[in-house]
Input
Amino acid sequence: MIAVLEEEDLALINALQVAPRISWAEAARVLGSTAGTLAARWQRLREEGLAWVTAHPARDVVVAFVEVDCAPGARPAVVRTLCQDPRAVTVEESARGRDLLLTVMAPDLSALTAFVLDDLPQVQGVQRYRTHLAKEVHRQGGDWRLDSLDRQQLAALESAGRRSRTATAVTPPADAWPLIEALATDGRRTAADLARITGRNPATVRRQLARLLASQVLTFRCEVAQVQSRWPISCTWLARVPAPEHERTVTALATLPELRLCASTTGDTNTMFTVWTRSLTELLHIERLLGNRLPWLNLVESAVTLRTAKRLGWLLDTDGRSTGEVVAPTALHP
Output
């Protein structure tokens, strides 16, 4: 039976989308609850795979979107293999146009090249693939929000998030990878949690965590199981935009509350964007809206995602809930 998110669950997730590492005490003041109630609710959401907070690279990384076609009957095996590869951070199974869409992150172009040209063709069952390099990512999944809070609550949470960020970045601590890997698995872990997991001195970890967060090499985001988010449909468009209209197009797309991803890419199509909607009918509404407001936008291809096997390193079950297994992205390595 698929669990259902209550309104209080959605409000808490919405709050953590805005301020992923806010204290329970501060969140309680904004949401009109208690710290204990919120902590218990969050624990249930995590245990049921309905929501989670993770860390991902905030620094410059090379991103590519790779369309993969599989040999007949080979898709499940290919998915299992790619889900264990820390460079393929997201693995989506599509309804048409390709079997899989991978989001690949690498620290540099050389590492991305090795994945695309050397390693991906060696995966048994991969027949063909097409690579779109992201020239710029304008909007990512961490920017998408539920609509469960009012403006006053959002403003308070945004203020709390700003207070937690330092104005000037510092260099991350040496040997930060164990901390980063632990935060990728649970982005709300405290210094005490990290000390216990890594076996390091608690006082040392407090200093290392503070420096790691101040280094700004990481950013945190709260994810939600899509089907239970009430926005269960995911669709990705490949589009072509005339160069003079590029900036205006990106600005217009950013006004869509459904927008999850928007990137300028290389290839015959130069723009890719993804939306989450409540129904398939809403996809038609979005296409009509874009046709009326952005007549120069040529929507070349669209594909609905049937299933997401992995999202930003987190392995998901067939209902889109987290399994608790995380393959920390290579690009997180300092």
